[in-house]
Design brief:
single chain; about 170 residues; alpha+beta; Jelly Rolls; five-stranded antiparallel beta sheet; about 40% strand
Length: about 170
């Protein structure tokens, strides 16, 4: 008398099950094949790109200093931004220096210039402390999702001394 081992029973049941659910020859004949054009990638697609804005002069007590260079974020989904500032002279009053990225859309720029309303802003700021010793301050990096392909870059400074701003934007997928 032969006995079925558990593995043999399992194999028998699985075979029976798969045979029962396999598509029939008629169903297979209804499949249509569509040829798509071949796509070639001429060079490797970068995963990340670091965009740097160095030594941007930002005057004291300024609300918005726009730089001419725009941030091109086309093809990237996130930006990690951080800002560092070098205070020109010793600050008598503490203040906040901020880098703001606004979408390069005419309506957004017009609204900001006319009413100082920031639509869809991405910001990084660094607090400048009153100090007789330290003249360089930096922020922690922050990650932001990107919704637009290009951004205007603005700086503001509420401290009593002009600064040179250094903005670092690491664009990633």
């Amino acid at each position: 008398m032969t006995s079925l081992r558990p593995t043999g029973v399992f194999a028998f049941l699985m075979t029976t099950l798969f045979i029962g659910i396999m598509p029939s020859a008629q169903a297979a004949s209804e499949v249509k094949v569509v040829n798509t054009p071949s796509v070639t990638v001429p060079r490797p697609i970068p995963h990340a790109r670091l965009q740097e804005f160095h030594a941007i002069p930002v005057s004291a007590k300024s609300e918005a200093t726009m730089i001419e260079t725009r941030l091109n974020a086309t093809g990237f989904s996130h930006a990690t931004i951080s800002i560092a500032v070098e205070v020109q002279g010793m600050a008598d009053e503490s203040g906040l220096v901020t880098a703001t990225l606004l979408p390069a859309v005419p309506f957004v720029l017009k609204t900001f210039q006319r009413d100082l309303i920031k639509l869809f802003p991405i910001e990084a700021g660094v607090f400048v402390e009153r100090s007789d010793i330290i003249d360089v301050f930096g922020s922690q990096p922050t990650v932001h999702p990107l919704a637009f392909p290009k951004y205007y870059v603005f700086f503001s400074n509420s401290s009593d001394r002009p600064v040179k701003a250094y903005l670092y934007v690491n664009l990633t997928h």
